[in-house]
UniProtKB/TrEMBL annotation, chain A:
Transmembrane segments: 447-471, 492-509, 572-590, 602-625, 661-679, 783-803
GO cellular component, one term: vacuolar proton-transporting V-type ATPase, V0 domain
The protein's name: V-type proton ATPase subunit a
Record carries keyword Coiled coil: yes
Listed Pfam families: V_ATPase_I
Keyword tags: Coiled coil, Hydrogen ion transport, Ion transport, Membrane, Transmembrane, Transmembrane helix, Transport
Coiled coil: 99-126
Gene Ontology biological process: vacuolar acidification
Domain of life according to the entry: Eukaryota
Membrane topology term: Multi-pass membrane protein
Compartments, as annotated in UniProt: Membrane
UniProtKB/TrEMBL annotation, chain B:
First-listed, main subcellular location of the protein, grouped into a coarse class: membrane
The protein's name: ATPase, V0 complex, subunit e1/e2
Membrane topology (UniProt): Multi-pass membrane protein
Organism from which the protein derives: Cynara cardunculus var. scolymus
Family per similarity comment: Belongs to the V-ATPase e1/e2 subunit family.
Length: 845, 70
């Protein structure tokens, strides 16, 4: 303990200390208290009414009210979208209003809007019908008389066959008229009906049509149904109708559906009552609207003027109505956001109030919850303020409870570290006060990404993109972005770190869109002799000092580039991997020290360090020694034969003196470390358990302060506490040991993905550069060059900047989640979710 | 420039960076320790990468063999 006090604590390394607190609030100030605590956002309420259903809780009616108001607000939002008001232009602040007033106002506005909508719909329908009527009047008027004539002709012919001959003079009149009429019929074919004296024509036809009892129906039918309409009419009336159709040039708004459809004006001439009813039914079936049409010309003109008048009247009424509606909606729009937030807040306050339980006296509400220790004074201030503001006689009481329950984990992150903490939390939230890998992840994650991404040209592109997002931070944080943009925006600080490290590793790998540069001095290699004959067969030699920073630029494009780079990158991956895994094990040491778990230190940390380092630490050492001495030793051979035949002489593979004996020693240490990890710990745990429960028959008396729930809690977790299954602990330790031992090999190999992705990236980049850009350049044609540049840009952005970024991101993430964190991280905690209005606003969206 | 010299350069850069972090964002001892940790981790990572690449090229076993087209 004393050691811990010497070192100051580090932010973010461990969760903030949390405490379980109980608030006793008088009922009259309860609403205000919760409201102020919501603004503070540092208290997580526990649900004390778990057994009750939502309907049994105290504030169910209030929540129903809030839900009703939310529904009305949703209705208003739909109306606002219809009116074309964009959500980004809605102001967020307005005048103050209380909840009851708001409820009344919302109700009034809803009724008004619904009424206005219904009225405007009715008016619009009437308007459309009148429009159609006017069309019928106009069009039918043109075709009526010729159509009527033809219809009458047809009917006369039909009747002529059916009527019995009579010796009355009407028959003669009929016959004369018939012949005259058929002449008329012929003439109407040749001449335009209008050229005949209309009066004569009309009178005769009118008389005749009265005698033959010809009725007519006029209206509008949809053009695509017109053929079917005609056919069915014909069939149903056995050809005893005459249909004349005339198409309307422009589409007409259908009164029923409200859409614009192509229609035809039709007139159907029919004889007899039965035919009439059939025609009417068919019209209804086809949805053809019927309009009455008089055959009197005078009346027709009168009708047309009347209808036009009515139409203009209706139009003005509709316009006025629309204007009124849009002004109401706009007025709502000004206040909408404020009302919305208010309703959401109230709903959340009542939900929280439902979680509190009533005191025995029914005059107080009791709340229990978690809060950070450092927030105590803020919470007490908020309680005091609420008491004063609600003019309550009794103040609210804040009391700290002690509990064996595990508190939630709370990290106070700023916006930069928040993104990295989210990455860690996505795998698992840290157990309370466990070491947080986020501290190191903030640096190693972008670094490992950059090892796989290494190109400073691409790094600069990423840097520009992420700095754009950061500069426009304020603007974008208030807007609603799409899903993908939301993720990219949320990770802007991660991306900028990734890009900075990528620029660094790009400079080290010496790749600018796969092109190397000689920034840091001259290349170390030159031809063996001045004629450079052997350059393409045996190669160059190293004449100067090593290239001071990064990979020598001469390598790019050579035939031995890949063997060299592969060897370099594989060894680099192993070295970085062993370093990170050692860091992980050291973190477990710090955890053990913090929780004062000596057992873990001696029987887990020490053997793990010994095992990992005697094998893979030794491999790293060999790599470094081989580089420093330039020996030709085969490291695969060395490592494999260290296990297979450790007593053999090393011969050519000797890197330093005493290597054989060192190897034997390390092998022995590794072999000893395995049972050291496996066996002592379960036995010692058993002994500890027995010591703790020596006087286990007696339990300490529960004091009056502790409430019933704690006892229940203890009892429910009693299984883990009271019992000690030795076999279970042994199996657990066995699994842990096997995982570590086998994992040390597989995890080390897993780090080779750093090599794999880095190779893929540089090869892709090289292909795009050489096979697209240089090829296009080679043609000496500006059109081909332009096409080549465009293809190069698209390929670079699409494949390298987007796909490779995501790929490297994913693999770096995996390396952290699995290889780094499984050395020390438990990750079985739960996160601190305080009751806060700002979180609720984010939630609802 | 030599291995040790450049290593020294990295150390100096690390110290300068931590001083800058201390000057720019001095927010109490726990936050300072966090910033120091981040800076040191970054410096160590960058140095490791440079050192690996430098050591690998000090005594090369493979030499560049130019391709025919050049």
């Amino acid at each position: 303990m004393a050691e811990r006090e010497c070192l100051p604590t580090m932010d973010l390394l461990r969760s903030e200390p949390m405490q379980l607190a109980r608030l006793i609030i008088p009922v009259e100030s309860a609403h205000r208290v919760i409201s102020y605590l919501g603004e503070l956002g540092l208290f997580q309420f526990k649900d004390l009414n778990m057994e009750k259903s939502p309907f049994q809780r105290t504030y169910a009616t209030q929540i129903k009210r809030c839900r009703e108001m939310a529904r009305k607000l949703r209705f208003f939002r739909d109306q606002m979208y219809k009116a074309g008001l964009l959500s980004s232009t809605w102001p967020t602040h307005g005048s103050e209003i209380s909840l009851d007033e708001l409820e009344v106002k919302l109700g009034e506005l809803e009724v008004e809007l619904i009424e206005m909508n219904a009225n405007s719909e009715k008016l619009q329908r009437a308007y459309n019908e009148l429009l159609e009527y006017r069309l019928v009047l106009k069009k039918a008027g043109e075709v009526f008389y010729p159509a009527q004539t033809r219809a009458t002709t047809q009917q006369r012919e039909h009747e002529h066959h059916r009527v019995e001959r009579s010796i009355d003079s009407p028959l003669l009149l009929e016959q004369v008229l018939l012949s005259y009429f058929s002449l008329l019929g012929c003439y109407s074919k040749i001449y335009d009906a209008a050229s005949y004296p209309p009066m004569v024509l009309k009178e005769i036809t009118a008389d005749l049509s009265k005698q033959v009892k010809l009725g007519y129906v006029s209206g509008l039918v949809q053009r695509d149904k017109s053929m079917a309409f005609e056919r069915i009419l014909f069939r149903a009336t056995r050809g005893n109708v005459y249909l004349k159709q005339e198409s309307v040039e422009e589409p007409v708004v259908d009164p029923v559906s409200g859409d614009k459809v192509e229609k035809n004006v039709f007139i159907v001439f029919h004889a007899g009552e039965r035919a009439k009813s059939k025609v009417l039914k068919i019209c209804d079936a086809f949805g053809a609207n019927r309009y009455h049409f008089t055959d009197d010309t005078g009346k027709q003109y009168q009708m047309i003027t009347e209808v036009t008048g009515k139409l203009s009247e209706l139009k003005t009424t509709i316009d006025v109505g629309k204007h009124h509606w849009s002004s109401v909606v706009q007025a709502i729009g000004l206040q909408f956001e404020q009302w919305n937030t208010m309703v959401k807040k109230e709903k959340s306050i009542y939900h929280t109030l439902d979680m509190l339980s009533f005191d025995v006296t029914k005059k107080c509400l009791v709340a229990e919850g978690w809060c950070p220790v450092h927030a105590t004074s803020q919470i007490q201030k908020a309680l005091l303020r609420a008491t004063i503001d609600s003019n309550s006689q009794v103040g609210a009481i804040f009391e700290v409870l002690h509990s064996k329950e595990s508190p939630p984990t709370y990290f106070c992150t700023n916006k930069i570290m928040n993104a990295f903490q989210e990455i860690v939390n996505a795998y698992g939230v840290a157990k309370y006060q466990e070491a947080n890998p986020g501290v190191y992840t903030a640096v190693t994650f972008p670094f490992l990404f950059a090892v796989m991404f290494g190109d400073w040209g691409h790094g600069i592109c990423l840097f520009l993109a992420s700095s754009f997002l950061i500069l426009k931070e304020k603007k974008y944080s208030t807007q609603k972005l799409g899903d993908i943009m939301e993720m990219a925006f949320g990770g802007r600080y991660v991306i900028i770190m990734m890009s900075i490290f990528s620029i660094y590793t790009g400079l080290i790998y010496n790749e600018f869109f796969s092109v190397p540069f000689e920034f840091f001095g001259r290349s170390a290699y030159a031809c063996r002799d001045s004629s450079c004959r052997d350059a393409t067969t045996i190669g160059l030699i190293k004449v100067r000092n090593t290239y001071p920073f990064g990979v020598d630029p001469v390598w790019h494009g050579t035939r031995s580039e890949l063997p060299f780079l592969n060897s370099l990158k594989m060894k680099m991956s192993i070295l970085l991997g062993v370093a990170q895994m050692n860091l992980g094990i050291i973190m477990s040491y710090f955890n053990a020290k913090f929780f004062q778990n000596d057992l873990d230190i001696w029987y887990q940390f020490v053997p793990q360090m010994i095992f990992l380092n005697s094998l893979f630490g030794y491999l790293s050492l060999l790599i470094i020694v081989k580089w420093c001495t330039g020996s030709q030793a085969d490291l695969y051979h060395v490592m494999i034969y260290m296990f297979l035949s450790p007593m053999d002489d090393l011969a050519d593979n000797q890197l330093f003196v005493g290597q054989k004996y060192l190897q034997i020693l390390l092998l022995f240490l590794a072999l000893v470390a395995v049972p050291w990890m496996l066996i002592p710990k379960p036995f010692l745990l058993k002994k500890q358990h027995e010591e703790r429960h020596q006087g286990g028959a007696y339990e300490p008396l529960h004091t009056l302060d502790e409430n019933l729930e704690q006892q229940l809690n203890n009892r429910s977790r009693g299984g883990g506490h009271e019992e000690f299954q030795f076999s279970e602990v042994l199996v657990h330790q066995l699994i842990h040991t096997i995982e570590f031992v086998l994992g040390s090999v597989s995890n080390t190999a897993s780090y080779l993905r750093l090599w794999a992705l880095s190779l893929a990236h540089s090869e892709l980049s090289s292909v795009f550069f050489e096979k697209v850009l240089l090829l296009a350049w080679g043609y000496n044609n500006s059109v081909i060059l332009a096409i080549g540049v465009v293809v190069f840009i698209f390929a670079t952005v699409g494949v390298l900047l987007v796909m490779e970024t995501l790929s490297a991101f994913l693999h770096a993430l995996r390396l952290h989640w699995v290889e780094f964190q499984n050395k020390f991280y438990q990750g079985d905690g739960y996160i601190f979710l305080p009751f806060s209005f700002s979180l609720i606003n984010d939630d609802e969206e | 420039m030599g291995f040790l010299l450049t290593t020294l350069v990295f150390v100096v850069i690390g110290i300068v960076a931590s001083l800058c972090a201390r000057i720019c964002c001095n927010k109490g001892p726990s936050a300072n320790l966090l910033h120091l940790t981040l800076v040191i981790t970054a410096t160590v990572c960058c140095w490791m990468m440079w050192a690996i690449v430098y050591l690998a090229q000090m005594n090369p076993l493979i030499v560049p063999i130019l391709s025919e087209s050049e």
